[in-house]
Amino acid sequence: MSRFDVIVAGGGSAGLAAALSAAREGARTLLIERQQALGGVGANAMVHTFCGLFHPDVSQGPQWLNPGIPTEIGQRLLQLTGQTSPDLMGRVYVLRHQPALLAQLASTLCAAEPSLTVQTGAELTAVGPDAEGWQLTINGLKVKTKAVVDTTGDAAAARCLGDRHWQIAPGQRLYRPAYVFSLAGVRTALDDSARLQIAALLVRAVKAGTLPGSALGAALRNSPFAGEVFITLDLEAGGAAWDPLDPDKTRALEIEGRETAEALWRFLRTHHEAFAASQPPTLPVQAGIRESARWQGDYVLTANDLISCRRFENEAALAGWPLEIRENACGPKFRFFDHPEPAGIPMDCLRHSDLPGIFFAGRCVSCDHEALASVRVMGTCLATGQAAGKLATFPAS
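User: That's the sequence. What structure does it adopt?
Assistant: C-alpha cells below.
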C-alpha cells in the first residue's frame, strides 16, 4: 500500500491550490484528477474567465482579494497572456485566460514541488477509516493517508461515506450547465456592437429553424489572443430531469453541446464576415457543470451570509463574487452584496467534526444552493482549496 500525508481528490482550481498548499508545507501529497489535464473546468471545460479573484470594490481599481496561491496564479496568468490588468465588466473584474495555458501552468507549478505526486486519469471510488487516518481506493488500488481533501466538484468522498454527508438541489433548481468551445481564425475582435449583431442573427436563425434552440443564448467573448473567440452555450439539459451525477444525462448534454457548436460554426462562417475563414471548433473535454453534490460541513454558508458581507472569526477565505444565479438557460441573474466589501467563508465550511482528517473545498464546499452561486467560481475555489490544504497539513488550525 502507498502512503501519503495528504491526498487531494480533484485537480481543478480548488484541488490545485490544496495540493500546492499542502506540499509547500512539506506534506507528502498525492493529487489525483479524473481527466488527463489539471485545471478542472478552466482547462477541460474551457471556462475562459477567472471570476472571484478581485475585491468587489471596483472604484479603487483591481485589487487581489485572497493572498497566496490565488494571487500567485492570477498574476502568472496575466503574464502568460500578455495582459496588464483584468477586464472591468459592469460591477466586477474578470481575468480572461487561455485554457491550454492554465493546464500548462498547473502542471508546471506541481512539477516544482518535490513532495507532490500527480496522477491523472485517476478516480476515487471508495473511502474508509484506517488506524492512522483513511484508506482510499483509487483506480482499484488501496492507498493510505492521514488526511483527505475532496475537491471533486461532486463530493465524491462524501458520496462514498453515505447519504448523510452530502446534499444536492432538486433538478429543476440546479444551475444550468455550460458547453464552451472556441473558434480560431476569426478576423477581428468582437466589440459590443458586433456581439449584439450576432445575437440578433441567432434569434432570427432559431425562429426560422436554421439553428437549434440551444444556440439562442450563445455568449461570445474574445480570447486574450488575437483571432480566437470563445462561445458559451447555457443548456437546459432536460430541465427538471437534469442530474449531473447520471452519466447518461451528462453524455446527452455533451452530444447536444457538440452538435450545437458545429451548427453555430457553420452558420457564423456563412452569415458573419469575421468568421468567414474561421477553423472548425475546438471542443472541450467535458461540459461545464456549475452545480452538483455538496458536502454538509459543521457550518453551511448561506446566501444571507454573503449578501450581508458577514465576517467570521476563523475564516478560510474571502468571497467577493456576486450571486450569479443560473437556474435556466436564459443567462445569469446577479445579486450583489449589500456593500462593496467581501464576505467571509469560515473554516467550518471545509470540515465536519465527525470526520477528522477529511476536508473539502471548491464547488462541493458546505453551503446552500444560493450561496453556491457565488463561491463556485474559480477564484474563490482557489482560495478555499488553499485553506483546505493547510487544514489537512495542520488540522488544528
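The CA atoms of residues 17 and 69 lie 6 Å apart.
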